[in-house]
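Q: Predict the bound structure with adenosine-5'-triphosphate.
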Amino acid sequence: MKKVFCVGELLIDFVAENQGNDLSKALHFTKKAGGAPANVACAISKLGGKGIFVGSVGNDPFGSFLLDTLKKEGVDISLTQTSSVFTTLAFVSLAEDGERDFVFSRGSDRELTYDPSLRKDFVGHMLHLGAATALLGGPLETAYSKYLFDALTKEMFISFDPNYRGDLWKDNEQQFIKKCMPFIEKSHLCKFSQEEALLLSGASNVDDACDTLHEVGTKIITVTLGKEGTLVSCNGMKQIVPSIPVKAIDTTGAGDAFIGCLLSQISHLDKYEQVFSDTSLLLAMVEKANKAGAITTTAYGAIPALPTKSQLES
Ligand code: ATP
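A: Predicted complex:
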């Protein structure tokens, strides 16, 4: 089984209780572990795969909480760095009008420093780049690009999820698009939401978006469509794999469960190239990943809701 190195942010989400108040009025917050690439590492480990998280937390109680959370889920945190800068915090509430109110206090996640010695451990394994904060600058952005380069030279399987956060890229969308392009160009697999596929391609529908983004470079595209399922595009084949009907109560982390489950399945293949040539194999994998996404929506929070291997198989 291959290891999956997941690079990016791990942070605290402070979610306001009694939603319906903007942050100025919110009084109580629930502390949750957050960060899409860390969620993906958890999803892989909970499914019995080898998720490794490469990121940076602060040398403070929030950092300890985050490390404990990942460790409990079986994630390898030996490559997670501890920084003297405080752990990154995000405060979020839904205001009365349904709009998200968001305050982001960026700390240690940007401090991840590139480790050239990792290159030798990359051989024969997989790299997942989840870009929510990684393209916002700092040492993390540099490390990100260097790990992409190392992964290419070591012929790793590379996956990319842009994790577009409108709150973080307000008035700066063009820069976000530009920064994503080299990753779309070099990755074997890209996971987009519908919003991301349209934004990054400039197309008006997801079919055209896939065509444009394949031209940039990636071989496999998955566009997650919530309860409608996932559009898969590879080698001229485009198909929607329907989702599994569930009573969804919280969709947080569904996309991370989806990509984590897909990567975990690819990590079990002898040769990852099989997934490019065998359409029915790819579709079966996406069906299973949809199931992981659906299960995640049936409980609150991201990491606690990610399915284990037995939950997925039952
Ligand atoms: P994220 O918020 O984590 O970035 P996303 O927008 O990328 O998520 P979604 O489309 O919400 O991802 O969900 C990922 C997958 O989970 C979907 O492709 C689908 O298979 C499954 N899923 C999501 N919502 C539902 C739902 N309400 N019912 C059934 N399955 C769902």
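A: The pocket of adenosine-5'-triphosphate is lined by residues 193, 224-227, 229-230, 243-244, 246, 248, 251, 253-256, 258, 290, 293-294, 297 (CB under 6 Å).
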